[in-house]
Amino acid sequence: MKEKIISKASELFLKLGFKSVTMDDIAGEMCISKKTIYKYFCNKEVLIEESTSTVHQQVHEVIDTIVAKNYNAIHENFEIREMFRDMFKNATDTSPLYQLKKHYPEIYQNIMTHEIDQCNHYFRDNILKGISEGLYRPDLNIDLYVKFYYTLIFHINATTVSEREAQKIELEALEYHTRAMATEKGILELEKQLKKITI
């Protein structure tokens, strides 16, 4: 039952927003009593914490699946972006991360600490892969480029109110990041990926 509550709560939080969804809403959607929810979660903050942690885990499982498909480095980044777009396509107009930062800053900070660690790992691996494939320049300062990119992405998500707007700016950031690193071969691959995009 605990997992079911987390799953339904995560779905509602992403769709309608962390602030607007109440414990009553979740109970009503699941046809259970509010008392049942409080049996597992002493308050809404604890439920939000567990839900965001579950979504975080799911996101990284999907990223791992994409990485395992062994696309080239640039294609891989575009596939990951597509996955985020699909995950949040039913989201409220307000970006979930923006809401979390605004209304539950402590939970937001906790998520970000883990997120930055994991993203460091993905971004670094992607850059090394791109260099080995001849898509990125071999002389890159990898640590710096990893930092540039996650600073850009997290800033966009934490400060852009509209989820749709955040996704459009993220695409620009991905293009910017890729162009900054790409060889001529990489630019050709980037152009190929950009042609396939539907915002």
UniProtKB/TrEMBL annotation:
Q: What is this protein called?
A: TetR/AcrR family transcriptional regulator
Q: What's in the keyword line of the UniProt record?
A: DNA-binding
Which residues, as ranges, make up the DNA-binding region of this protein?
A: 22-41
> HTH tetR-type domain: which residues?
1-59
| Organism whose genome encodes this protein | Flavobacterium piscisymbiosum
What PANTHER family has UniProt attached to this entry? ACREF/ENVCD OPERON REPRESSOR-RELATED (PTHR43479), ACREF_ENVCD OPERON REPRESSOR-RELATED (PTHR43479:SF11)
InterPro entries reported in the protein's UniProt record: Homeodomain-like_sf, HTH-type_Tx_Regulator, HTH_TetR
Superkingdom field = Bacteria
Q: What is the lineage of its organism?
A: Bacteria, Pseudomonadati, Bacteroidota, Flavobacteriia, Flavobacteriales
